[in-house]
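A further point concerns the way the authors explain their paired sequence and structure data. Nothing conveys this as quickly as seeing an actual entry. An entry of this sort, consisting of the sequence and the corresponding backbone structure tokens, reads as follows:
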Amino acid sequence: MHPFQVTPETKKMVMKNICFLLNQFIRCSAYENVIFCWVMHEQTIIDEILSKLETGGCLVHTISLICDADSLRKRLQKDIDAGIRSEDVIQRSITRIGLYEKLDTEKIDVTHMTPEQTAERIII
């Protein structure tokens, strides 16, 4: 489905699919670590997902990767130039920057970090 339609029905479907897949990975003994990366700008999204996961035998870390508006704009522009995203993503994303400070997550400012440096920081 392109473009993805954001409706109450599709939101419910996505949440159900995410929780199903994450629980499958959690139950699978072949995996020691599961990293789930998704844009979660509201605490209710995080809470809903966590409430449906079987985390009894897990250590869960919630981390928000944040950056300044200029860095975000430049990163998103690369995706726009590559045809991966549409132009409207920039303003929508910049508007949400402040929401991440309200989340009950560890914040990592990746403004001046490479993906490799970010991964190293998460591992620590």
